Each structure stands twice: as structure tokens, then as C-alpha cells.
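A student in our group prepared the protein record below, which I am reviewing. Thanks in advance; the entry in question is below.
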Amino acid sequence: MRLSNKRFLKFSKRYISKESYSKLKNIREGNELDHTIKAALRTAIESEYYAIRDIIDENEENKDLFIAKTKFLTLPGKIKLVMVDYDPDEIKKLFNLMSLIKEEIKHV
């Protein structure tokens, strides 16, 4: 499903930082806005990924994190899939998976 630039910007609001979103709102050219939103989403995804990786690396000796580590290992493939088509449904699934992994780590 492909969204218009305005709807894509509104969708990305919940995933990117407030500073980035305020700068994105000022861009008027459609093609530039599309590429900039994609770059901001890519940055948000990568920062979440590295934050989770750091948490898992800190708790490397904990054997109870096996399920969270296994789910974490599926993330690079899912991230590459999202980077190809930027489907909003896939982006939601990816961020939901990342939050699920964080909660599993927190409960262990």
C-alpha cells in the first residue's frame, strides 16, 4: 500500500523524533519529502535496533534471553525488507516486534 506524502508524513510521526518531524513538515517538494521521510524512518529503525543490540550484549551471559535473542536475530532480514518498499504495515510490524523484544528483555 502506497501512501501520499502527507499521509506518509503523518504515519511516520509516531516513529521519528520530534525535531526531525518539525523539519520534515517544512519541506514542500514532494520527491524530496518522500526521500527524507524514508531516511528518517531508516534512522529510527537503526537506532532502535542498536539500542536492543546493546541491551542484549550487556546481558550476554543470561541464558533466559534465548527467545529474545532468537527474535532479535530475525530483525536484520525484516529491516532489509522494510527498506525495499517502505510499506506502512511492515513498518508497524517491525516496530511492534522491537517493542516486544524490549519487553521480553525487561521481564527477564
